[in-house]
Design goal:
- By secondary structure, the chain is α+β, with helices and mostly antiparallel strands.
- The chain has eight helices and twelve strands.
- The chain has helices at residues 14-18, 22-35, 49-65, 69-72, 112-116, 124-127, 130-155, 239-244; strands spanning 11-13, 37-41, 91-92, 97-98, 101-102, 105-111, 176-182, 203-206, 213-216, 223-225, 232-237, 253-255.
- A four-stranded mixed sheet has the order 1-2-11-8. It has a three-stranded antiparallel sheet with strand order 3-6-7. It has a three-stranded antiparallel sheet with strand order 10-9-12, with no helix packed on it.
- A hairpin with a 6-residue loop joins strand 9 and strand 10.
- Helix 2 (22-35) crosses helix 7 and helix 3 crosses helix 7.
Length: 260
Amino acid sequence: MDSQPVAHLLTIDSARVKNEDQEEAAKLFQATKEDGVFYLSLQESSFAEVLSDVDVLLTFAKNFFISSEEEKLQYDIDELGELKLNGLRRYKPVGRNFGGNVFHNMSHIIPAKSTLDPAAIQPPIVAREFPSLKECFIHIRQILLLLLQSLSTSLGLPADVNLTGVHRSHIPSPDIVRLLHYIAQPACETGIPQAAHTDLGSLTMLFATSPGLQILNSRTTEWEYILPKPDCAIINAGDRMAIFLGPLFAMLHRHSLPSA
């Protein structure tokens, strides 16, 4: 990693944002407007419990991905149709093609609506961790609503049309948790496992345990790695923020396995 460009992002303190600190709110707006991505510190704040939630989620992800391929393929996302509207089928195995590229990762999707709806049917492997997953979704949603409220204030949006008003928990939405596991490759075979893209939604919260996420620096046009930072989430703005709120910036990013 020493020879590969690394992004230097602003770090936003969630506790100061919650306390409506004007300096931190301005910093949050700057990071979202100019970079479209930032670290969010969760240490020593009322949101620190989400770090414990994420530990549970990462353990669940590890246990899921090391389970037999036969078990995972019971939830093959492509088995019932190309639109991915397949009920419980949300697993993508390694090597599945998309747009001509082979993804060297496996993934599993957990829709938010399924964890917030006690009547929703869960795959057994999800059902076993249902209470913890539900708490994780609730805490993540609280954090994202806090950021959206602060950005609404910075944008001068009226209370009746602010960003939190269009992110209501009782309204159906495509919010998901996506679990990703990238497969180690020899340096000579390391490539770009995912095409460069922006996210479709408003805000994405990422927790990573190893390098892999890259952003395109709009000033230098170089791809830079975002390194995981202890007790922090990585937040990036999506297309919804950029399209409907012109001052904000959707970050072009991709996932690339480091060569070393």
